[in-house]
From TrEMBL:
It comes from the Bacteria. This is Major facilitator transporter. SUPFAM superfamilies: MFS general substrate transporter. One of its GO terms (cellular component) is plasma membrane.
């Protein structure tokens, strides 16, 4: 009888009261790294045209800078993930924060297109584990029943970083030009680094795994990932690639498309911030949706609705108020669905290869995001299509492909991470 009363009381207890101060600090640290990651990366989406003019290259060539950044992230994800599985989560998180912040500053100091491309490659290598390490830390520290919520909140950092990039475009760009956009993340990165050093504990799950596994020191987590789970790695790689590809025609090309309409910078910034605000709410909601509907159905529903909303924002761009509504909804559903990706990845991989696996899979997927803008721009140039049609077409087709692939995913709602470890 007493246990029934306790369960009844627990069921009415607000979820956030189950999270300890230490667990909140882990989330804040991971979230802050993801904010800075987004801020430093997304700044370039507002100034691709400026960079093309400054260095005398075409717009589709300038868009390859996104691919340069994303194309090497899988290498960084494996390198930092393997390091994290060996020495812990905290130190690699500090290294990645320092690395991609330095890469952004170097971008602003570049002297020609080649040096700029090299700096974006370096930034991509360093930013690779920004989300995957944070997702592993949150998954390993938060209670199982709130794991998807925690990772969803973590992903709001991308939306906040997007707002920061839009504000920088409105207030920094007019005075300091495109170069000034890449220095904005330096002050918050310094403060965040101090916070991680002083207040964030090492993952208890990682320490437990190191203490209980005599093989951990001798086995290479990266080698074990591909040797023991080749089918799982192949499927999740394909899933992440398609999902990332589907969201990036909208994320990367919307500001550029709006600039072709000769809209004022304040209007472009407002529409972009509407999307970023939608992302924040979508990332938070995605965790609750995933806990209610399951991981597969939640993502399918969100990308399906989101792709329709992208069509709305592109077609209504000349009516800023309507475009802002559709932009908010696009951010909420399409980009917000990625708040569930980290949950699926962490729940499909055992502890000893979790950071390596999430680091590789997530960052292999974003190669699709890096390819999407170049493929859209190249296709519309070759076929003489409008940029609006290109964004809509590739977004909708990728969403449909993602929904088909998700039908074959393992549903991991309610699975305890220790169960995944035992299965391994």
């Amino acid at each position: 009888m007493h246990s029934e009363v306790v369960r009844s009381s627990d069921s009415t207890r607000p979820w956030y009261r189950d999270i300890t101060a230490s667990q909140w600090r882990v989330l804040v640290a991971a979230w802050g790294v993801w904010v800075n990651d987004a801020l430093d990366f997304l700044a370039i989406t507002f100034v691709l045209g400026d960079i093309a003019r400054a260095f005398g290259v075409s717009l589709d060539t300038a868009s390859l800078l996104l691919l340069a950044t994303y194309g090497v992230r899988w290498i960084g994800g494996l390198a930092f993930g393997g390091l994290s599985d060996r020495i812990g989560r905290k130190i690699p998180l500090l290294i990645t924060l320092t690395w991609f912040t330095a890469g952004a500053v170097a971008t602003g100091l570049s002297w020609d297109f080649l040096s700029l491309a090299v700096f974006r490659l370096l930034l991509g290598f360093g930013m690779a584990p920004g989300f995957s390490l944070g997702a592993a830390m949150v998954a390993e520290s938060w209670p199982e029943r709130h794991r998807a919520i925690g990772i969803g909140i973590l992903d709001t950092g991308w939306g906040v970083g997007a707002i920061g990039a839009a504000l920088a475009y409105e207030f920094i760009y007019p005075t300091f030009g495109w170069r000034g956009m890449f220095f904005v993340g330096l002050p918050p990165a310094l403060l965040l680094g101090l916070f991680i050093i002083i207040f964030v504990p090492e993952s208890a799950a990682w320490k437990e795994g190191r203490a209980s596994s005599s093989k951990l020191a001798s086995n290479n987590p990266v080698r074990q990932l591909f040797k023991r789970y080749p089918g799982r790695v192949a499927y999740l790689s394909m899933l992440m690639f398609v999902l990332c590809f589907g969201s990036w025609p909208f994320q990367a090309l919307l500001p550029t498309y709006l600039k072709t309409l000769d809209l004022p910078a304040s209007v472009i910034s407002a529409i972009a911030m509407a999307s970023a605000a939608g992302q924040i709410f979508g990332f938070v909601a995605s965790g609750f949706i995933a806990e209610r509907l399951g991981r597969r159905l939640a993502i399918s529903l969100m990308i399906g609705v989101g792709s329709a909303c992208v069509t709305g924002v592109v077609l209504s761009a000349h009516s800023p108020a309507i475009a802002m509504i559709f932009s908010f909804l696009s951010g909420f559903f399409l980009v917000g669905s990625s708040g569930i990706w980290g949950t699926i990845l962490t729940e499909n991989l055992p502890r000893d290869v979790r950071a390596s696996g999430v680091g590789f899979l997530y960052n292999f997927g974003v190669i699709g995001g890096g390819l999407a803008p170049f493929i859209v721009l190249s296709t519309i140039n070759r076929l003489s299509l409008s940029m609006a049609l290109g964004i809509i077409l590739f977004t909708v087709v990728a969403a449909m492909a993602g929904m088909v692939i998700l039908r074959f995913a393992r549903e991991t709602k309610g699975i305890d991470l220790s169960q995944i470890d035992r299965e391994a």
